[in-house]
Amino acid sequence: MNMITISREFGSGGRELGKRLADLLGYDYYDREIITAIAAKKELDENYVEKALEGRAWQTVPLTFRQSFSPINMEQAVYTSLLVEQKKIIEEIAKTGRDCVIVGRNADKLLADKNPFRIFVCAEKEAKIQRCLERAGKTEHLTRKEIISNMQRIDKNRAKIREMVAGGKWGDCREYHLVINTTGWEIKDLAAAAAGFISCWIRR
Amino acid sequence: MNMITISREFGSGGRELGKRLADLLGYDYYDREIITAIAAKKELDENYVEKALEGRAWQTVPLTFRQSFSPINMEQAVYTSLLVEQKKIIEEIAKTGRDCVIVGRNADKLLADKNPFRIFVCAEKEAKIQRCLERAGKTEHLTRKEIISNMQRIDKNRAKIREMVAGGKWGDCREYHLVINTTGWEIKDLAAAAAGFISCWIRR
What we know:
Two copies of one chain form a homodimer.
Chain A: E1 3-8, H1 14-25, E2 28-30, H2 32-42, H3 46-55, H4 74-95, E3 100-103, H5 107-110, E4 117-122, H6 125-139, H7 144-166, E5 178-181, H8 187-203
Parallel strand pairs in A: 1-3, 1-4, 2-3, 4-5
């Protein structure tokens, strides 16, 4: 079983890269699907689940989910239960034994024993802003200032969540097999380049 | 003209990767050759030049090398003149217009206007120690403890020199096109994978 995990900066194109990699390699692809599965299991709204998992710093949620853990308030209890569910779903994906690409969710740390090929995707700040502006023009109505603010908030939270879940530093190049800067690439071309690189890793 | 620059952690195999990449792509290769050229020009011993450029923190050497600069002591004057010579030699390499791989020397920053493909090579600590131990067994007689100490000292100095020359943070993944972790790879196989990736970048 071959597994690729993708951590990414907001606006770097990491999600598109993951999708295209899965298509090129013929792997299963998991991203939003994990949120959908958690929402279904917990009978909660998908958008609520997504915001809760991405938007919070999780500073007070414990690293291990033991039965003895007593959350000090309702909000914490919900968050903890979402994290536990997410962990279960990611472990179930691994149990299928099928080749896959998983975007986000610190899957590389949760499935460390499976030794996934770990990718971190970043880009220069201006390139990320431009990518977000293009996307915003189609589906959202955000100003440049709002995009920069979103970018900083989301990446800060991703870093905090990673630190909490895994103790590692988000974006520290030594934590990954490959760090790819998408600046100057069409993601389509980059995906082909990365698929070739990964195929060499698998064959080695 | 295609140019690849390689920054690397001590013991990561970055030098071997650079040599193999140059061979695979048919590019010129520069590493030790730069030291040799500086030594010849300055009529100094190669080992002295190498140690002076790698082993010092350069904290007090100015960023720009203006004629008005007056070194406050002899040692500083020699260092500055080595740095100036190194910069000249790297610029001369670029002027040849030939495709090349340059290892170390912050060539990515010195030749930023040529937009080289910038690679940073790292590895897990234990993998680096093992690589150094294997090398030490052949040509040097260093203990594990001495190797770890060398590794820390050299990487610390590389980080300081980079900060001084370029203001950037050494090993910050956003500073490079690609960060490659060599852990788990034979450098020969990795070089083939990286050459394929870079060929996609050139063709894009």
